[in-house]
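Researcher: We're reviewing a set of sequences before deciding which ones to prioritize for further study. For each one, I'd like a predicted 3D structure that I can look through quickly. This is HECT domain-containing protein. If possible, include the structure in token form so it fits the rest of the review sheet.
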Amino acid sequence: MLLQPQFSEEGSNKRSFENKVYGAFTRYLREVAGGRRGTVFLGKVLRFATGSEEEPMLGFVLHPSIKFTVAGSFVPTANTCANTLNLPRPSPDTPLPPDQKLFHFYDLAFSNTYFGLI
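Model: Here's the predicted structure for HECT domain-containing protein, in token form for your review sheet.
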């Protein structure tokens, strides 16, 4: 995968929450790749995280990554300067929403033309 996840230590509580949201994110990407998310396509996801819809011929200087964050919302954000997709994860106080609702948040973010600044 082009976006490499930065997981917490194996066996930690944080890692179990990260695994849940990462599993949902990979299901979402399969839907995107299959053309089942409307106007969202894989290039838009990459553009959201990096500012580019395609991988450069010689690759990225900073390899694109996924950083797991705790936030009040499950809408992802990005830092295009660092090629980082900030993917909100659940916590003991905030459970992961059902896929349909979570995927709607992802659609809103990746359809955005402001490169992660929503």
